[in-house]
Amino acid sequence: MFYKTSEPHGLPHNPFKSCVAPRPIAWVSSIDPDGVVNLAPYSFFNAVASDPPMVMISFNGYHEHGGEKDTLANIKSSGEFVANMVPRALKDVMNVTTAPVAHEVDELELAGLTTEDSALVKPPRVREAPIHLECSLHQEIKLPCTLEDSINTMIIGHVLGVHIRDEVLTDGMVDLSKIEPLARLGYMQYSAVENPFVMNRPRD
Ligand SMILES: Cc1cc2nc3c(=O)[nH]c(=O)nc-3n(C[C@H](O)[C@H](O)[C@H](O)COP(=O)(O)O)c2cc1C
Fold first, then answer.
1. Which residues surround ligand 1 with Cβ inside 6 Å?
2. 54 forms bridges with which residues in the sheet?
3. What is the best residue among 42, 60, 81, 108 to mutate for testing ligand 1's pocket, by most ligand atoms within 8 Å of CB?
4. What is the CATH number of the domain that holds 115?
5. Could you give the number of structural domains in the chain?
6. Could you report the per-residue pLDDT of 98-108, keeping only the tens digit for each?
7. Is residue 63 part of a domain?
8. Measured between alpha carbons, how far is 35 from 166 in angstroms, rounded to an integer?
9. Exposed, middle or buried: residue 57 (CB in 10 Å: 0-12, 13-18, 19+)?
10. Mutational pocket test of ligand 1: of 25, 97, 98, 105, the residue with most ligand atoms within 8 Å of the beta carbon
11. Per-residue pLDDT tens for 42-89?
């Protein structure tokens, strides 16, 4: 089949997200001007450069209680955030933190998670996550939006510091089989990295 994205696709559900899958999930911790910590998952997330390391996150729509999603508002006001990696073991805990709770509700407490201080940025890290990227806001980019009364905003973050829990290193390399990072597919589907394999490029 083929469909033009400007026209109906004719399928029971929008297939687009399954056509760009799997997508890593950033479990983003951020902080508001009063010091209230926020945590939420975002899968329009990826690394976009490595020297220096940069990541992107895209925010779709408003917060159910009005205004921008808390994570976006916090990143814009503080200029900082932490992208925590979600291991498969924490999939259900991650799901709790996506609830559109009121701004002042602490999703970490709700999910039974704990934090530890970051080294370079104000938002704390999720202690239970195996990898943390401490980031500063590099750029905000407004994206087009075809839905009425909605917004799409992308931010690019500069990764200033990376924490890797020692137990997930094997011979000095990040051992993703020990983490099984959770990934988002289309619809309500998820996957986890279970079987990393090595394939060298021809010139190697
Ligand atoms: C796995 C997962 C991935 C998500 N990815 C995104 C995303 O990329 N962009 C987005 O706007 N919302 C995404 N959401 C929805 C947000 O997590 C949700 O709107 C949340 O309530 C936002 O919280 P906040 O206002 O505390 O930032 C995702 C939800 C889940 C469960």
1. 25, 38, 40-44, 58-60, 63, 69-71, 95, 98, 100, 184
2. 49, 158
3. 42
4. 2.30.110.10
5. 1
6. 988 888 888 89
7. yes
8. 29
9. buried
10. 98
11. 999 999 999 999 999 999 999 988 899 999 999 999 999 999 999 999
